[in-house]
Design a protein that fits this description.
Layout: E1 4-5, H1 7-15, E2 24-29, E3 36-37, H2 40-52, E4 57-61, H3 73-78, E5 80-85, H4 100-106, E6 112-113, E7 120-124, H5 127-130, H6 135-139, E8 143-147, H7 167-172, H8 177-182, E9 188-192, H9 203-213, E10 218-222, E11 225-231, H10 232-250
Helix pairs in contact: 1-2, 2-4, 9-10
Length: 256
């Protein structure tokens, strides 16, 4: 039987972290992982607002992508991992792959929504800056809070990959033309890995394990959900340093 979680339970749990009034925080979450949340996603959002206050900020991803579609058996054998539908500029109010808390936050009247495919939405201090992307959160040494999800949901980790991810890694995910013909851009995005090559190491997972080893990650619980809190700047700097110094090694390509 799942745990019943109230807004006050969430506030009390958040106070066990270093998160406090005036803080800016990037949030990724799974509502179902917490148990039965009274008040649903709104309870989570209001609890976060109560903790950081109007002098703080909440930032969530509002990417215009669907939930992943699983491949067929034939597509999986070819190397397709999944595909997502990319919504157009005029599409609003849709169920995205970001989760119900993020979608509810996106649709609030007091939330500022950014633009583009990989847009974000923000509430609180400097919301205009935050709505332009995660760089401002990193610049001001803001937090990342993961509720019932892991490092692979952390959108700010992408910031340091542009221009630094090895070409050999990009080649692993180069989608074959016949799949692009079947699922063409800009309507679809296909995640692919060449099945004839050995799998890559989990780069983000390795970065997280190293950050955790250095004592840079706080852990807690909200209901049944395992939660993680860390500084976005610290995590992205560690990721960037590893990419620059040994990008191939980060992905386990030394011996390939």
């Amino acid at each position: 039987m799942s745990t019943t979680v109230t807004k006050n339970d969430i506030i009390l749990a958040l106070h066990q972290f270093s998160l406090t009034a005036g803080d800016a925080v990037e949030v990724h979450s799974s509502l179902s992982s917490m148990g039965h949340v009274e008040g649903g996603p709104e309870a989570v959002i209001v609890a976060l607002m109560d903790v950081v206050g109007e002098d703080g900020a909440i930032v969530m991803s509002a990417h215009k992508v669907s939930l992943p579609y699983p491949p067929t058996e034939e597509e999986a054998a070819e190397g397709m991992l999944n595909r997502v539908w990319m919504y157009g500029e005029n599409d609003e109010g849709f169920k995205s792959g970001m989760g119900i808390v993020a979608d509810t936050f996106r649709d609030r009247e007091d939330t500022l929504l950014g633009t583009g495919l990989h847009r974000v939405c923000a509430w609180g201090k400097d919301a205009k800056q935050h709505a332009k992307g995660y760089q401002h959160l990193v610049d001001i040494d803001g937090w990342v809070l993961l509720i019932g999800v892991d490092i692979h949901t952390c959108s700010s980790m992408h910031l340091v990959e542009w221009g630094t991810k090895p070409q050999e890694v990009k080649d692993y995910h180069q989608t074959p033309q016949h799949l692009l013909d079947r699922y063409p851009l800009p309507n679809w995005w296909v995640e692919f890995r060449d099945p004839d090559k050995p799998p890559l190491d989990d780069a983000w997972g390795k970065v997280f394990v190293e950050a955790d080893r250095r004592g840079l990650v706080q852990r807690g619980k909200i209901g049944d959900a395992d939660c993680l809190l860390f500084k976005a700047k610290v995590m992205t700097e560690l990721h960037h340093q590893w990419l620059v110094e040994d990008g191939l090694g980060l992905y386990g390509l030394e011996q390939v």
